[in-house]
Amino acid sequence: MSPGLWPCARFGRSHGLHGEVYLELLPHGDEYLELGERFSVSKEGADEPTPVRLERRGGTSQRPLVRLEGVTSKQQAAAFAGSLLLAAGDALDRIPHYVAGDLIGLRAVTEGRELGEVVDVLQGQASDLLELRAPGGESILVPLVDELVQVRQAEGVVVIREGLL
């Protein structure tokens, strides 16, 4: 995926006869959709995302509905099912973020205690999850949210809030 593109949602089923499509929001997708200034669609198998213009937004925060410029029929809308809606813009670029590959291999610690090593970053319902491998081999999942995890890449560690585990 190109830098500066933030995944908002997957296109779901079409709605109505005039080209509207439901979105299945990804973690933080509602925020990215709101802050996005420019949008693109990434279809499976395509080399590069295709720029699109959101003509209409509707639905609810749990079940957003969009219509793309030039998409005027149920059949055209259905062709987007499963594709990703990506957002771009200055406000999004100011959000602190991490490349998953840069987090893998970092030591996971809490104040005064070694917890293990980050072995994967998984996509969860509400947020990304750090998968830690503890010294004994067990797997621990920790939500990657600012309230619980502080990433110190320069030091090679992620610090998990005391008392969480």
User: For the terminal residues, how far apart are their CA atoms?
Assistant: 33 Å
Work out the number of β strands: 13
Quaternary form: single chain
At the third CATH level, what is the topology name of the largest domain? Answer: Elongation Factor Tu (Ef-tu), domain 3
- Element-level helix/strand string: EEHEEEEHEHHEEEEEE
Q: Describe the biggest sheet? A: 7 strands, antiparallel
Unreliable stretches (pLDDT < 50, length at least 5) are none
User: How large a portion of the residues is in β-strands, by DSSP E?
Assistant: 35-45%
| Overall SS class | mainly beta
Instruction: Work out the count of structural domains.
Output: 2
Named at the architecture level, the CATH assignment of the largest domain is: Beta Barrel
Average pLDDT reading:
88
* Rg (CA only): 19 Å
> CATH superfamily name of the largest domain?
RimM
User: For the record, what CATH class of the largest domain applies?
Assistant: Mainly Beta
Biggest sheet strand line-up: 4-3-7-1-2-6-5
Choose one word for the global shape: elongated
Number of helices: 4
What's the helical proportion of residues? 10-25%
